[in-house]
Design brief:
The protein is of the alpha+beta class and about 90 residues long. Helix content is about 25%, strand content about 35%. The strands form two sheets. A four-stranded antiparallel sheet has the order 1-2-6-3. Strands 4-5 form a two-stranded antiparallel ribbon.
């Protein structure tokens, strides 16, 4: 499987930026992705060594647009911990 099929996008928030200083990086991944698939994809895309992977399912929030109700899609999040000495530049120049 192609690594870009597993990892959808990096998640850049205040909390994920703080985790980046600890060697942890947060990504949105495909809904059926396993920990092993995420580990292989991160190692192949960024040429780093992964120590551990934690994945979680995030439920979509209900939303309204006027009188119409809907719901955002459910998605899956992965927190990847790298080994000592390895880092990823998620946003270039920052």
């Amino acid at each position: 499987m192609n690594p870009s099929d597993v990892i959808t996008r990096p998640i850049v928030t205040e909390k994920s930026t703080a985790l980046g200083e600890l060697g942890k990086y947060v990504f949105q991944v495909r809904r059926g992705a396993s920990k092993h698939a995420v580990k292989r994809a991160v190692e192949a895309m960024f040429h780093v060594e992964v120590s551990s992977v934690n994945v979680m399912n995030v439920r979509g929030k209900p939303r309204r647009m006027g009188r119409f109700e809907g719901q955002r899609s459910n998605w899956r999040k992965a927190v990847v911990t790298l080994r000592e000495g390895h880092s990823i530049e998620v946003v270039p120049g920052v």
